[in-house]
Amino acid sequence: MASKEITRFETYIRGTEKLDVFTINPHSFTAVIHYLQTVFRTRSITHILDSLVKQKQFRLAELLTILYSGHIHVITGGCNKDLKRIGKLWLSVKTFVDSKKDASFSPCYEIMSDALRMEMVKADGKQEAVDRFAICTWFQVQQYEKDQCEKRKSILKNMVAVIPDGLDRTVAEIVYYSKMATTAEFENDIESAKDFASKAKNLSETCEDKTAKILAHYSYFFLHRRLYLRDKSETNRQMVLEQCDIGCDMFPVPDEDGDFEMYCALLFLLYKAGDYLHITYEFEVLDSDTMSPSNIVAAEEVLRSADRYIPISTPRKQLTFKFCMGRLYHLQSEFEMASTYLNETKELMIDGVLNKKEQRNVYRYCEKFDEEHRWKSCLGQDNETAKETAEALIVKQHYCLHQNMLHRILEKFGRKNEVTLRLCEDVCNYIKGKNDKIVHVFPSYTIHFDREVVFVIFVKDFLSKKEEDEIGYTIKQRLVDQFSSEGKDVMSSETTSDDALTLDETKRLKDCINMHATDLMHRHNYLSIITASPVRSKSYGTREFKIQKEPCIVLYVHTKGYIPLDEDPFERRYDGVPMDVREGIFVTYPQQTNIMSS
User: Tens digit of pLDDT for each residue in 146-172?
Assistant: First the structure.
């Protein structure tokens, strides 16, 4: 194996007093690994180790073995009851393995677990050895994802099977139930997952070992966080936030030697901030969820605590922190600060700390932010320049703008402007595609809030609260073929009223309708029919509701009170004739539908 890389590498390691993860130059080591994988035509490190031994390359074989053992000497050197050192060990191994971006390094975890299992057997009944082995098994299972559930269950069953009789199994059972909980959730067995998590949590309440308590609590929290992301139920949300509080309280101010405690504290703090900011564990931002001001304030406090007390050392934690800060400043409309943090987030992604799906989610959010940032800059320009900029931006628009940004654009350009209408049309198409129940959407405003957009949606069946939240915009639901009973109530009054229209009143109303009907139908898309009536409806739906004698023309619309964005309100009078708006549509006879028609 004549190679400059190997020669340089062997020269380098000869000068080291101890071979471990921290003293090996990562670039040199990576170069050698790539070379060996090419020579042996395999990515399997186990196969490479065997081949090195056969070829008497003992120095390289020893190096790889020590790296794979993951500082076993740290544990065998005497952990005693301080199980947090296993957590610290796991973190160092995890950092090393993750830095290689190579799945063939995963045997590090198995070798570490096997070494602890052998230590447990040799310890001849020592409780500490059993607990160390169980805790290490928790971390071993941690590396397997939801598509490797059988592997997870196999490891857990083997752990339980090899523990000697007559010893306290509390820590081992906490590990077993904790990891079986998340495994069951991966397999969509929700009831079993909840049962496993509860058993682990109950055991941890009487367990004296702090590390076991942390792991049980983390698994309980992680499960309910995933359940909340499934159903968005308020019960699961409150439980998640409660568990975050408990987790953070476990680590008020970490000590200098508390690497593992700091890791767990940071984990809970970042998860908590993510929950407040509606960021999933895969870095997907749930923009559709409603965001309360109190959540933003809470997230800001949590992130400040994380930054103040805990060293954010690993690249993934740094990335998570910066992404949360970018999201926070974005929600607070501090675009320059948000841009700084999101750019730093993208720089950290270059090192491959996220998988492909996570990267897509982050890039997607950053792209949406960049578009919104450009629109904000546009709104700060003078009117003529802003119109030119807006026309250029809308050609390149890929994402729907948030509701608040739509309001600002409406205020800047006006509700009938082509840019405003085009952006709202994009949102209408987005909303329509969110649910099969939705058959039509149009943007509207109300008389008293003419600078705010409300999207009126026609639905086959009413959306649930969860389905409403997923849309993420202010909406008004209306069933396709149902209307308020105002029209029916007023028509009943007309039928029984002794105050029928006189001939003069009838002629006046007829002339008014003939004069304005064509123009009204042309200018108002959702106007269905125009009729004459001897009475007007006042304050329908309130205690002041009354039907009063007053000849008028009646304009029937689908959704009363919500005016299409590109239309003006109806006039109060036409040629001096009062106007009354009611809900209803006109259909010809054989069409059958549940509507009120004239």
Answer: 788 998 998 899 888 888 777 888 888
Q: Which residue do the tokens 């198409």 mark?
A: 429
Q: Which residues contact 107 (CB under 8 A, 6 or more apart)?
A: 45, 46, 68
Distance CA 63, CA 49 (A): 10
Continuous segment of H or E residues that includes residue 454: strand 454-459
Tell me the C-alpha distance between 159 and 309, whole Å.
36
Q: For the segment 547-563, what is each residue's pLDDT rounded down to a tens digit?
A: 888 899 999 998 888 99
How far the first Cα of the chain sits from its last, in Å, is 93
- Torsion angle (degrees, nearest 10) of CA 495, 500, 504, 505: -60
Contact 533, 552 (CB under 8 A): yes
Q: Please say if the pLDDT value at position 321 is more than 70.
A: yes
Confidence at residue 577, expressed as pLDDT on a 0 to 100 scale: 93
The pTM score is 0.57
d(CA 501, CA 278): 60
Rg of the chain on CA atoms, in Å = 34
Three-state DSSP class for 382? coil
- Per-residue DSSP letter, 246: H
Quote the CA–CA distance of 440 and 428 in Å, as a whole number.
8
**Helix (DSSP H) and strand (DSSP E) numbers for the chain:** 24, 8
- Give the whole-number percent of the chain exceeding pLDDT 90: 25
Question: Do 290 and 272 form a contact (C-beta atoms < 8 A)?
Answer: no
Query: What confidence tens digit (pLDDT) does each residue in 36-57 have?
Result: 566 666 656 566 667 767 776 6
Res 268: pLDDT: 65
For residue 494, CA distances in Å to 285, 501, 531, 550, 584 come to: 54, 10, 12, 11, 16
d(CA 217, CA 206): 13
Answer for the pair 228, 221: CB distance below 8 angstroms, yes or no.
no
* Backbone angles phi and psi of 453, in degrees to 5: -95, 130
What span, in angstroms and rounded, lies between the C-alpha atoms of 567 and 558?
Answer: 15
Which range scores top for mean pLDDT: 125-129, 142-146, 158-162, 426-430?
426-430
Sheet with 475-479, strands from edge to edge, namely 475-479, 454-459, 438-445, 563-564
Q: Is 530 exposed, middle or buried (0-12, 13-18, 19+ CB in 10 A)?
A: buried
pLDDT tens for each residue of 239-278: 766 666 665 555 444 444 445 555 566 666 777 778 778 8
Q: How far apart are CA 223 and CA 190, in angstroms?
A: 9
385: burial class by Cβ within 10 Å (0-12, 13-18, 19+)?
exposed
577-583 and 546-557 beta bridge pairing: parallel
Residue 558, helix vs strand vs coil: coil
- Give the separation between CA 277 and CA 551, rounded to whole angstroms: 55
CA distance 427 to 163: 59
